[in-house]
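Reopening this one. Same input as before:
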Amino acid sequence: MEAILFVGHGSRRKTGNDQFINFIDKTFDQIDVPIKSYGFLENAQPSILQAIDDCVLKKATTITVVPVFLLPGIHANEDVPTELENAKRKYPEVFFRYGNPLGVHEILINILEERLRYKGFSKEGNDTVLLLGHGSREPIAQVEFEKMVSTLKDRGYSHGLASYLKIEPYYDKTISRLLENGNNRVFVVPHLLFANSLFEIVKQTISSLQATRQVILCDPTGFDKRIIDLLIYRVKETQVAPVRVWDGR
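Same output, byte for byte:
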């Protein structure tokens, strides 16, 4: 019997986990499989293994696992697969498929463009787009993030840069440098899902720069309803051509 399992990072804040659960529930409404579940990598329950336990209890023999992460960082490439290795040892008779994170996709680019338009960005001026990510030690995550910046440039956002919360180039230092160099305005677009607390930190940092008229903070990507279509695409993609397969049969 087929099961779908979506994996999120998990938040220390109940509101963040509730956002994820509500979003996944809406996605489940559009997926026709007998068993549907979700689990968290950390900070919340059910854990990934608890979610798999529940799927197996419901007679799942094949479990398609899709990581709900924006980029292929350490969590998607190492942490979740480690949990699935543990699950496979516990359930050698179950066939596990593992998919791609959200990644670089037209849907996400469209959302970022909408965030910019909503705040009044004009392609005709000399404004800069600063795409803000969490940041990862995984090189491929940075490569994918830069692809998103390049795609925005190809669409007319010629002054586009990448910046991060946790790794270099740090967004606050980048903003300061741009302002010192006389840039007209800087539009900061946070490409984040669990954005509540991080968004507030970014907002406070920008305020402390005393340049709020020159730095425009856009809404984060968040759990936009259009991402549901992307998740469904990742499910179908994984069922046909999974990134990894654990097959004990």
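So the earlier flakiness isn't reproducible anymore. For the record, Residues 74-90 form the longest helix (17 residues).
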